[in-house]
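User: what does the whole thing look like in 3D?
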Amino acid sequence: MSEGRRLARKKDFLLQRASILAAIRRFFVSRDYMEVETPLRIPAPAPESHIDAIPSDDWFLHTSPELCMKRLLAAGYPRLFQICRCFRGRENGDRHLPEFTLLEWYRAGIDYLELMSECEDLLIGIARDMGKGGEIVYGGKTIGLEKPWERCSVREAFEKHATLSLEEALKNGSFDETMAFEIEPQLGKERPTFLYDYPLSLGALARRKAGDPAFAERFELYIGSMEIVNAFSELTDAEEQRSRFLKEEEERRSMGKRPYPMPERFLRVLPEMPESAGAALGVDRLVMLFTGAAEIRDVVAFAPEDL
Amino acid sequence: MYTASDLRKGLRIKIDTDPYQITEFNFVKPGKGQSLYRCKMRNMITGAQFERTFREVDTFQPADLQEKTMQYLYKEESNYVFMDMESYEQVYLTADQVGDAIHFLLDNLEVDVLLFEDRPIGVTLPNSVDLRVMKAEPWAKGDSVSGNYKPVILETGYKVLVPPFVEEGEKIRVDTRSGEYLTRVKE
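Assistant: Here's the predicted 3D structure for the full assembly of 494 residues, as structure tokens:
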């Protein structure tokens, strides 16, 4: 297919994408959030065992703007949002591109439960701006957006949808497979689902759950079986953050991955960061939801193979 | 050596002792979790299909496969005998390995024989072959508008539907992939 025809066929998706970006900005501006831009090229990404930063000279392309935005938060900016390109090596599939667009926002003084409500308001606001009314149709399913959305803990999700319990899955190392193939396909089918309270080892930058230290105050939002948002109450204890980074970095190196330096400047200011919660939303996937696109490459003008 | 991130549709890898072709491929990654590579694959020797999920740490050997142009010589008991056009070496394939190609194998036909670690495991025919019609009902004049196809038997014993005007003794071209009649061949 010619370049002109390929891009002409995407016109509706790209127009809706532009409207969604405008709607996101309207929402955050109306809530007194400040839009920021932070560098895409950084010397020390947050070590996470299964997210790979792409090297750029002797630095890296960021995998999310998390560390720089938290440094701003620590410096006294209480409400921040950013829409930026992020890069993750070797992620390429129907719902993944190695370069993709992330919306990330942080707010001081709230926790992950209050952030769930803000997610509801954001998506309902975008749907209204897009003329979608109270529902989204995706993958042949009609998903109602009226509040409140479903809230389901990770433990409950294993009990409801999986062939083994959360403890068994963690013990035999099949958490990811069970989540991907048994649980995720069942989530957010009639209304959006917040999946919350992940095992602590699956939230390297999330705060420990008050009263249940084996879990992290982290949630994911699923709509139409698709993961849209990852969020948590932020960890502000620098000591604990350092030891979790060391553990992740050790695992990365044991898998033969390129070592990262420790993000010392982030750790230095972390004690000054207020109690807060933050979220990352996959903008490309949100566009897929609102346009009905089956694959992520449908909603970007240029996928890697088009370059 | 391949790593899981090299997996894609069509890739051929060796697992245990057999070659496999990836027929479907899906990249999945639950949030903050590890990359999972869900593949459907086909055993290139037995034809068996199955599904398997790999992780990013998994590695694979490429399957040592090559295609060689060979000439079909003759059938010997239950084996089909082919000759390497370069080395004149003869190789033997079973009916299972030849598969549907047996319907179109004519002596001296040039084909591609697929070798796995130098052992023959399959054969690929040219997209079409010309075969003589050995047995056909005569064309009833006046039947030309009916458009009814009639069955004929070709020199390999293969039965195929052809237009009514095709006569015994004529040659026709057959699509080896669909097994269907393409056209009459003028000699």
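In plain terms: Chain B has three domains: 2-62, 65-124, 128-185. The mean pLDDT of chain B is 92.
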